[in-house]
Amino acid sequence: MGHANYDLSVQPTVLTVPGLGGSGPAHWQTLWERSRPDTSRIDLGMWDRPHRNSWVTKIDQAVSSARAPVILVGHSLGCIAIAWWASMSPQPYGWPVAGALLVAPADVDRAGIASELAPFGPAPKLALPFPSILVASNDDPWVTVERAHSMAVDWGSHFVDYGAHGHINAASGLGQWPEGLELLERVLTAAGGPHGEVRTPGDARAILSQRAGDDRRLHA
Questions:
Q1: Measured at the alpha carbon of residue 219, what is the angle toward residues 178 and 130, in degrees to the nearest 5?
Q2: CB-CB contact of 69 with 95 (8 Å)
Q3: Per-residue tens of pLDDT for the chain, all 220 residues
Q4: Domains of the chain, earliest start first
Q5: Residue from 44, 46, 96 nearest 75 by CA
Q6: What is the DSSP letter of 134?
């Protein structure tokens, strides 16, 4: 990937990566896109019959065309697509993707999974080359909280048990999801320093760990 015009000194751009079917008008991803000037959606296409390599290519094109550090915000199958992109498009730690918020990753490895999701399995197990938070609900029909935690371990993500909120989507009634915006700000803080420099993995983990106490309030 070429990044000749990539500028570490400017504010990151936030790119959402929805899951199967895309994110509708009441989904928090859509609401963020409408309310945050730094946020836009990657148009993955084939929303109802997703193709893994096509989605990975669309993510790669969006990252490659960015002129600033990128923060990826994935939901459901979008989280798995981000993990596949990271495994198929290796990057130096922290750039061009500087961080990710991964919400309610779909379990593409379980038995009897929907045929639309099966081609994305098995989920990659490589550590992500950027700081990340993985948020899971403990009554999500698409993934158990234990499986979500194991993905967080595989990917080196800070894990947040968000309590009982279904698939953390529009049906969860979260609206703008202010707690999610707080988590996004944590990722942004862990991703880079005040002058745009890339943090080391240890520094990023320390920042996320220092804020781990906030997770108990999110769970409440």
A1: 70
A2: yes
A3: 434 345 556 789 999 999 999 999 999 999 999 999 999 999 999 999 999 999 999 999 999 999 889 999 999 999 999 999 999 998 999 999 999 999 999 999 998 888 888 899 999 999 999 999 999 999 999 899 999 999 999 999 999 999 999 999 888 989 999 999 999 999 999 988 655 677 788 888 878 876 555 555 455 4
A4: 13-219 (3.40.50.1820)
A5: 44
A6: E
Can you read off the two tokens belonging to residue 31?
Answer: 């609401």
- Please tell me whether the overall predicted TM-score, pTM, comes out greater than 0.85 for this model: yes
In angstroms, how far is the first alpha carbon of the chain from the final one? 42
Instruction: Give the CB-side neighbour count of residue 40, counting CA atoms within 13 A.
Output: 12
How many C-alpha atoms does 82 have within 13 Å on its Cβ side?
37
